[in-house]
């Protein structure tokens, strides 16, 4: 038995300080997980149950450490937004994972961006349609190298920021998250059987905004370095 078309390439993320790669299975993204960002998007920052959307695994764009990579401005949008986020990568999965055990399932952490066609997302919200056209575009998830938890620990606090052409647009602390990484893992595992290689984008702070071609974005998280992308 053989496949009748060529098999698609496997999506994988690099490990910081190593030539090894971690294969990606699914990509979950939590919405409005910083109170100030919830307010700027017209939401309620209280601890209501978190909500998630997904990106395809092949929407991730690898951003090597110390390099500025080209990031394509996508079609069908006039309002393309950056959202810097802590990225969590799982080493093991399961169902109904207790919050107290959730961090034991984490392989490591990285800096990522949830790039968003905001005009298409806003239209989908108004029409009560899914968000994929706004959130799941090609290369919409730039991610830097994964820092293993055995070396970086489990960052519950530390500066998270994004600048455009040297001007700081987003600046907050990981401790400002409404739902912690452990709580997100536990909540997701009540709906899905999580597995090794699952990726979670843990939410963005306030200050999201548009970029245009020719601008350079730098996303950074304390202890995890930074990623640099030039919009082309």
Short description:
Keywords: Hydrolase, Metal-binding. This protein has 232 residues and is α+β, with helices and mostly antiparallel strands. It has helices at 35-40, 99-102, 118-127, 132-135, 149-152, 181-189; strands at 12-14, 21-23, 27-30, 52-55, 60-62, 68-71, 80-82, 84-90, 106-113, 116-117, 141-143, 147-148, 159-164, 167-173, 199-201, 209-210, 216-221, 225-231.
Fold and architecture overview:
With 232 residues, the protein is α+β, with helices and mostly antiparallel strands. It has a single domain (12-231), classed as Alpha-Beta Complex (Fumarylacetoacetate hydrolase, domain 2), CATH 3.90.850.10. It contains 6 helices and 18 strands. It has helices spanning 35-40, 99-102, 118-127, 132-135, 149-152, 181-189; strands spanning 12-14, 21-23, 27-30, 52-55, 60-62, 68-71, 80-82, 84-90, 106-113, 116-117, 141-143, 147-148, 159-164, 167-173, 199-201, 209-210, 216-221, 225-231. The strands form 5 sheets. Strands 4-3-15-8-9-12 form a 6-stranded mixed beta sheet. Strand 17 (216-221) and strand 18 form a beta hairpin. The longest helix is centred in the middle third of the chain and has 10 residues, at 118-127.
C-alpha Rg, in Å?
A: 17 Å
**Coarse structural class:** alpha+beta
Based on Cα principal axes, name the global outline.
Answer: globular
CATH superfamily: Fumarylacetoacetase-like, C-terminal domain
Sheet with the most strands: spatial strand order = 4-3-15-8-9-12
Oligomer: single chain
> How much of the sequence is in beta strands?
25-35%
CATH architecture: Alpha-Beta Complex
Q: Describe the biggest sheet?
A: 6 strands, mixed
- When the domains are counted, the total is 1
Tell me the helix content. 10-25%
Give start-end ranges of low-pLDDT stretches.
Answer: none
CATH topology name, in short, is: Fumarylacetoacetate hydrolase, domain 2
- Compute the separation of the termini in Å: 43 Å
How many individual β-strands? 18
Give the SSE string. EEEHEEEEEHEEHHEEHEEHEEEE
CATH class: Alpha Beta
The helix tally amounts to 6
What integer is the average pLDDT?
95
């Amino acid at each position: 038995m053989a496949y009748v078309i060529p098999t698609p390439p496997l999506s994988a993320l690099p490990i910081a300080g190593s030539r090894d790669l971690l294969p990606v299975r699914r990509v979950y993204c939590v919405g409005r997980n910083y109170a100030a960002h919830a307010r700027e998007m017209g939401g309620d920052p209280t601890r209501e149950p978190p909500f998630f959307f997904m990106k395809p695994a092949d929407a991730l764009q690898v951003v090597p450490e110390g390099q500025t990579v080209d990031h394509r401005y996508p079609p069908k949008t006039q309002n393309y937004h950056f959202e810097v986020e802590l990225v969590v990568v799982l080493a093991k999965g399961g169902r109904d994972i207790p919050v107290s055990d959730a961090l034991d399932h984490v392989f490591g952490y990285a800096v990522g961006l949830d790039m968003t066609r905001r005009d298409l997302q806003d239209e989908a919200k108004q029409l009560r349609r899914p968000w994929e056209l706004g959130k799941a575009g090609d290369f919409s998830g730039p991610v830097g190298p994964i820092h293993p938890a055995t070396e970086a620990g489990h960052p519950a606090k530390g500066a998270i920021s994004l600048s455009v052409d040297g001007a700081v647009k987003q600046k907050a602390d990981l401790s400002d998250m409404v739902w912690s990484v452990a709580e997100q893992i536990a909540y997701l595992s009540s709906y899905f059987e999580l597995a090794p290689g699952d990726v979670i984008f843990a939410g963005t702070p306030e200050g999201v905004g548009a970029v245009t071609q020719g601008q350079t974005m730098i996303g950074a998280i304390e202890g995890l370095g930074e990623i640099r992308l030039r919009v082309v």
